[in-house]
């Protein structure tokens, strides 16, 4: 994966989490030590998290990491084993789903097959005894927002995947929830439609000003849509930050490997210099990289340096930080990824401009762009994971 995608706007062990840039004031939603266990197994370790008005927050991680369980606790579909959920400072932990100012969009959309598009969108309003005239006005406005006003009386079994997704979305937002919960709503769509719907979903969120909490295992989807990402692994919240922070400043080996593409080179600590650490690589190269308050760092500690292909460039043989031989190429259209066998024994991926000449077998140097690379622990157990 390349660097985080720029968002396009189409519309006018408890983990403590800092407020993201751009948020201010009291949190709309606060999780305090919220956790869940099943038969003694911790599906979600206690987590503290503050989510603000109008934020688009994504719970990201591999299957089984606890992200859907966390979302279901917010929805009231799972009772927490410990902790509290507060909205505007009010404890709603014990409240049933129907009394929470939330709504949810499921992966399979859960449309009512016996109702047409209008009937599906109107269902929640009618169940809440909203006057029929207001129902008609709100449903028409919601369908117009996603370009479905001409399909109001179409049977839902005649809808495409993208249209079904839009119906499920507007059915959830027509009741004007404070928070919209989305459980992998784009997972069933093909790649091109999914990319288009990412932009549409984000544009709708910005237009409404509703807080969205979105679950996905797709890192590119999380990067494209989110204000902040909550990265999870094995029930733990591993890192929280903006897409740029999570991509550029991974705090753990898991983050570096899961988000984007990175090569992790083994190294050994020479000197700790505040937020910088000087390391030596097996081939003899020495360089300084950022770290993030990694505990227990001392000279001779083993570690890893995460390097993205885009942070590296080809240099003349004998120059640059590393020396190696091009072992293979991956053509990417406008660029080529070189697979380089380093003299120290490791392999590294390097981003290079697309060139007509085959570079396999050539000796090259590899230089680092300013600020490239992040030092992480060799073992996650070193930081309590």
Number of helices: 8
Helix content: 10-25%
Strand content: 25-35%
CATH superfamily of the largest domain: P-loop containing nucleotide triphosphate hydrolases
**Sheet with most strands:** 6 strands, mixed
* Spatial order of the strands forming the largest sheet: 6-7-8-3-9-10
Order of helices and strands: EEEHEEEHHHEHEHEEHHEEEEEEEEEE
Q: For the record, what CATH class of the largest domain applies?
A: Alpha Beta
Gyration radius (Cα, Å) is: 24 Å
The protein's oligomeric status is single chain
Low-pLDDT segments: 5-22
Level-2 CATH architecture of the largest domain: 3-Layer(aba) Sandwich
* CATH topology title of the largest domain: Rossmann fold
Q: How confident overall, as mean pLDDT?
A: 87
Question: What descriptive keywords fit this protein?
Answer:
385 residues; 20 strands; alpha+beta; OB fold (Dihydrolipoamide Acetyltransferase, E2P); 5-stranded antiparallel β-sheet; globular; Rossmann fold; 6-stranded mixed β-sheet; 2 domains
Short recap of the structure:
This protein has helices at 67-75, 117-127, 132-145, 161-173, 191-208, 219-225, 243-248, 253-258, and strands spanning 29-38, 41-51, 56-60, 82-87, 90-91, 102-105, 179-183, 211-216, 228-233, 236-241, 263-273, 276-280, 286-290, 302-307, 312-315, 322-331, 335-342, 347-353, 363-368, 374-377. The strands form 4 sheets. A 6-stranded mixed beta sheet has the order 6-7-8-3-9-10, with helices on both faces. Strands 13-12-11-14-20 form a 5-stranded antiparallel beta sheet. Strands 15-19-16-17-18 form a 5-stranded antiparallel beta sheet, with no helix packed on it.
